[in-house]
Amino acid sequence: MLNLDIFLFYLINHFRLSFLDNILSIFSNCIFIDTFYILVSFFLLLKNPLKKYLIIIFFMIVGFLLVDFSCARILKPYFKRKRPFVSIPKVYYYSNNQFKYLNTPQKKEVSFSFPSCHASNSSFVSFFLSFFYPTLMFILISFFIMVGWSRIYLGVHFPLDVLGGWILGFILAFVFYKFCNLILTKINAKKA
Question: Does the pTM exceed 0.90?
């Protein structure tokens, strides 16, 4: 399985096009990702009563924090998987706003690789919002796929890291959606 993971990594990481260099580096930028989800969230305010909107946003924020904490503080230290640019040769690696081709792995201290927090966080928010607003599903899923692809293209994650992040995000999005929906149903039942 790990051989397939490395093969797929090289396939994605070595598929170089200059416009992808520019686009995919943006999809790994936390400010860009956060701005996208904030704009989507504000758009949803226009479509919902304030109370429902605030409950959904509350669950989304709490869930996001749990996903991020689980990924960064529990799963990465547990699995201790090294990132591609410090574990295998011949990697295109994005750092300091530029790509470098690394013939040999870099020797530097970095955080661990599995699962990808970018992938888990973006997957969580995209699925969570998609469960409530299926009409946005195509845009939201396309967005988190681009985020995951960018992590491999930039040389900072293996495909299994991204897939693991997507699965973690999906599972917790489903759980938080169910809890949130339960609360919304109880609030609506009290009104009736």
Answer: yes
